[in-house]
Amino acid sequence: MSFRIDPRLPLTGEVRRILADEIGKAIGHLETAREKPEQGLHKCRKRLKSVRALLRLVRSGDEPFCQTENECYKQVSALLAGPREATALIETVDRLADAFAEQSVGGLDSVRERLVLRQHELHAGPDLDAAINAAVAACREGLERIDRLALPDQPEQAADILADGARTTLRRAKKALDKAQSRGEADDFHDLRKAAKTHSMHLSLLGRLWPTPIKARRKAVDRLGEQLGELHDVFVMRALLDAEGEPLGPADETKLLRKLLKRSEKSLTKACLADAAELFGDSPKRSAKRLARKARDDIAAPQEEAKAA
Known about the structure:
This protein is mainly alpha-helical and 309 residues long. The chain is 82% helix and 0% strand.
């Protein structure tokens, strides 16, 4: 089923439909994760992000429901974060080895082996099975609560709800961008990444309503999201290196890893700030007004046609 709001249909029914579809797929990916953790956990967390993005989009229409459900799926995602992060760290080492091939030939093998061992320990232990069981139960309970959602279906109110949700995310992105430009802390870029991911999903949900050339914007936002994801993994790897405990590898390898992480961070930071400024430099209020205006027209059109018939 389509991850897109159909303006010809009542908003409540459309949001309920998409929630049920995404949560159902998340449960399917959780079942896959029992045998294929790397694949299933990643796909499940993507579905949960989609669910939370939709809840943010329509939050002003039913705030108690959306706030409660968003917190529920935030906790479900947190249950699965550790095992997924273990895989992301291996992918980070592989990216560094590819990006700086001349400097890293064979130089990160021991680090990678230890990260793979760490991943296997997380995936093979009883904790993962318990986390999957808890996540499945929470998602199934969430499916049963979907019918409690009640949104205004009148064209103008529905349009304002969608515009308000989109504007809130654009404001989050603009605020995170300003902080990343001025401070450049890992948390600032993480907030920017979350806002960019949510905005990307809003573009998908509002594909029939967004007033700008949406394909080019969606492509640019997705590219930014990927870059910010790689930067986040660099920050996580650096924090792991700085943490006390068993080292990730011999001193010469960890020294090389720090050097490559620093170079990657510098390059990614520059690219992310430039791309984010292009995407989120416009006024969120102005963008939302254009969206609300177009949404009112598109949502009202089918109803006007029905009256005329």
